[in-house]
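User: I'll paste a sequence; please echo it back and then give the predicted structure.

Assistant: Echoing your sequence first, then the prediction.
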Amino acid sequence: MDQKIDLNADLGEGFGRWRLTDDEALLASVTSANVACGFHAGDPATMRRVCELAAERGVRIGAQVSYRDLAGFGRRAMDVPAAELAAEVAYQIGALEVFARAAGSGVSYVKPHGALYNRTVRDTAQAAAVAEGVRLAAGAAGRELPVLGLPGSELHTAAARVGLPCVPEAFADRGYRSDGTLVPRTEPDAVLTQADQVVKRSLRLARDGEVTAADGRTVRVRARSLCVHGDTPDAVRLARRVREELTAAGVGVRAFV
C-alpha cells in the first residue's frame, strides 16, 4: 500500500524583532508551510523572508489566515460580520501572494489559524465567509486554492459548495475529543509535548487513520496532511523526529499539492 502524508507547520509567527518560530530549521522537515499573514502574527519583512526560504527548499507556501488579533495571537473568540471577514481573508492571501510570487513560488493553499480555525468547524456563517474569501483570492490568482482544515468541518462543507478543493488535516501535537474536534487550549492535555507520544500519534494517524481521544475512545481521522505546531515547545526537534520516523516506517512525506 502506497502510504504518504504531508507534514505542515505554522511559520512566520513573529513581529518585527520578535520571533516565535524557528522558520529556517522547521523548513528542513516540513513539506508545507502555513505562513502567518499579518493578522495574528507576521509582518511584511517576515512574510517575504519565509517565502524566500520556503521557495529555496521546495516547500509549499500556504496562507494562514486569521481574525485581526495581534494582541491575542489570533486565539481569542471574535464576531466579525461575514462580508468583512471574507474581505479580510482575501486580503491576507493577496498580501502573501505578492511575496510568494516574488520568491518564484505562489500561495498553494489556505489554512485558518487559531480561533478562526476552531470557529469554522461548527459555525456555518463564519465558515461560508472564509470560503468566500478564499474563492475571491483564487479567482484573482487564476488557480485553485485548496482549503486545509479539520475533516467533516463546516469549513470544508462551505469550501466544497463554492468549488474549492478540501484537504483533511490531523494534528500530531494536539489533544482530540471523541467527536474528532480538538481539545480547547484552556483545558488540560490540549497540547502534547512529549516527543515519543507525538511520534507514536503521528505514525498511527498516517498508517491507520485513527487517534485516541482524551476520554480513551478511538477516533477515525483520515488526513492528507499532518500538523506540528511551530510554537509547540521544542517544535524543531519534534518535526524532525516525526519526519524521520514516518520515513523509516515507509510513509512517504510529501506535499499534497
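The radius of gyration is 17 Å. Residues 208 and 222 are 8 Å apart (CA to CA).
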